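User: Could you check the structure of this?
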Amino acid sequence: MSSLKTNEDALVEMAVSGVITTPAVRPGQYIPHPDGTATVLPGMYGITYNVRCGDRAFGWAGDHVEPGVSIDDDTDQGRHHALHYLNCIGNEAMVTSGMAAGERGIVVGEHARILVQFSPEAHELMAPGDRIQVMTKGQGLALTDYPGVALKKMSPRLFHALGITEDNGRLHVNVAMELPIRIMGSGAELNSEYVDQDLMSGDRALMAELGIDQMRLGDVIAIRHADHHWGRSYRKDAVSICLCIHGDSVMTGHGPGILTLMTARNGEIDFTIDPAANLAQLLNIGA
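Assistant: Sure, the predicted structure tokens are below.
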């Protein structure tokens, strides 16, 4: 458990719920490649049986592939946004209807829906429409001695699992890889508590040169000069710590999705590359 001082004792734990969504296909069915060709691919929403945290983010015959099950409550905008804004990565979830009722899982991402991973056996029993309740905790989490560091979508469970240390007034975080700010694309216009930002993966040679094509779902990553306080923008010397939450895309301006966990503008965050910095290992939710 981290020795850093937080306001964890003041956090409110609250239940929100949603239902497992059905897969969605883009209007017109075809997804365009950068070269103008087009294809039909699976990817978002529903239940994904064979893609989990710790698996590769690149190389699937899919588009924006999501690990686990995708849940939402789109019958009311207030409930939809409560599900999105109150959820934090690492929150516990429980199935409350259907054949898998009583099974427990972990929130592993936020895309257009909330992504929750259960055991493979539980996934086989689930069906679209089954209701999932999430015990949300983490919104409002703050570091007492680091007011310039904002925590986003960070459950106390994940915060402690990250093993963050401090040295000479700086926080040190282990990350699986660093991404250059110049490749960050779609999602910059969204606030950093809502959904993710895609890296732009169309330059495949660059992805291979930088080793980004080895990224895994659930990898903790760092981006220098990225300020994620209110959105996702360039600011010299800022650092943001993020999480890979969905797979690659063939669409121009898109690629694996990166969700914000921590951000600082004035040098309060540093990082060390550690390939083991992945949600599957940190939260013990592998296959």
